[in-house]
Amino acid sequence: MLLQHQLVFDLLVDTNLIDGTGLARVFRTSRTGLAWAARAAARRIKAPKNADDGTTPCRGALVDSAAFLDIAGVAAACGAHVVAADARGAIACGRGGQGQRGVWSVGDSSNVEAVRWGREFSTPPRVAQLSVGRDFTVFVIGGGVAYGCGNGEQGQLGTAPAPIRSCSTPRQIPELRTRVWRCAAGVDYSLWIVGDDRAVVGLGANNHGQLGTGDYTARTTSVQRCRVGLEDGPARRWKPGDGVGAELIGVTCIAAGVNHALAVAGGVLYAWGARKFGQLGDPGQKKRAVPMPVRSHPLVPLACSLDGVTVVDCAAGNAFSLAVDADGGVHAAGTNRTGAMGLGGPPFFVSVAQRFQRVPIGDEDTRWAAEIFDRSDLSSNEVDALWGRGGRHEKVVSVACGHAHAICRTAEGRVYTWGGVHRSALLALGHGADDDIEARQRARLVPNVGNAVHVAAGGLLDGAASSLIVRADGAVFVASNEPSIYGQCLQAAAVTPDDAVAAAQCLGRFLELRPAIP
């Protein structure tokens, strides 16, 4: 089965504290390292230098209560194709017309196939992290080397697929010559955390400034580091001590939406790109080509819910953004047309929210929020302040966004989904083919799936949507409305498309993805 535990674990050690946020590196550790990793994650203390048996760290990760499980497996979903990996290699299924599955084929397939690597590998390489875009996939392998496959017409894979601008097997991206820590794939661009100082660079389309380079020029053969920007208007009131003009370094998390991007550095959320719908957390309408920290705006009377909190994770979708703070709270900004902000129906529903707001996760959180918002004796800022200090019964540790829906994982391994109120994206939520639009606008617990260690989501403008869950025992579950993915899930559930009754019962549910790796 995919993602099984290994005798020698890759776990979190060398834990540091940055602005109260527990960060860690992943080492190949002995059982001594395993014990120290567990203590460091639980107590947020610094592990001694001899806590591991000394190999090069291969990636960074956030510390949470599930951190010392075997999280070597990584997975991603783009709505149209799904890719997952563990120590033995990577697998993929779904659409493949541009070679985005990396299986030496440019056709769609509902069969789970192994990703085929180049002749430079005698055995499948260790995948540290991966991300999928509209029709391409990017990988970070080994000690931090960037690879990609699929469509590269916009330069999102650099010159790796030249001269044909697409490739059906992963190839190294030559523009990223320094160590790569993490990757994120948008519609037609890719972002990377590189170097010992963890700076952000990008490749591909840049028509909305989503590469964060200060201009709108696409990058196809070279990369440029992002710098914290300064805009005209009230933003100039910010003091030079805010680091304006300096390189955006120390980045621990990046996210690429349709045409905007997010990054977390030092516990602060930075945003850039398109912002017509408030997805950057401020009231501006003009696109922004430089990263800026998310905070309350001088001209907006309502406070930003990220003020004074430490951000540990982020995700970006189509015109909406999500962030997770160190206390496990989820915050959302942008358009709520598809319910992807998780604000629910009345009294939480808003069409466009140009600031970050807390999202109720779980029934108790929802009831508490309803009681606060019903109080007519409080101003909007007082409501926000009281709601932010309210009883929280779910501690979220990671989030992921599709085109029109979202998924999150709690420290206890529970999974919540919301959004997808238009078209058939609701089938990626794991709650079946329900018609309750108002319910889909609130975060709901996914039934019969627990002990999750990883979640992913994706979607396309044509309505394709998928969600993916990796469980601690190695099982991978997928909910999708994409035929080439959903059909494979039916096969795994021993259901044929001709069995209409059984297929209807599986529709919109999370089903186990059966890998082709022996």
TrEMBL record:
SUPFAM superfamilies xref list: RCC1/BLIP-II
PANTHER family from the UniProt entry: REGULATOR OF CHROMOSOME CONDENSATION
Superkingdom: Eukaryota
Taxonomic lineage: Eukaryota, Sar, Stramenopiles, Ochrophyta, Pelagophyceae
Gene Ontology cellular component annotations, sorted alphabetically: cytoplasm
GO MF assignments: guanyl-nucleotide exchange factor activity
PROSITE patterns: RCC1_3 (PS50012)
Gene3D superfamilies given in the database record: Regulator of chromosome condensation 1/beta-lactamase-inhibitor protein II
RCC repeat coordinates: 144-196, 267-327
Name of this chain's protein: Uncharacterized protein
Originating organism: Pelagomonas calceolata
Stored InterPro entries: Ran_GTPase-activating (IPR051553), RCC1/BLIP-II (IPR009091), Reg_chr_condens (IPR000408)
TM ranges: none
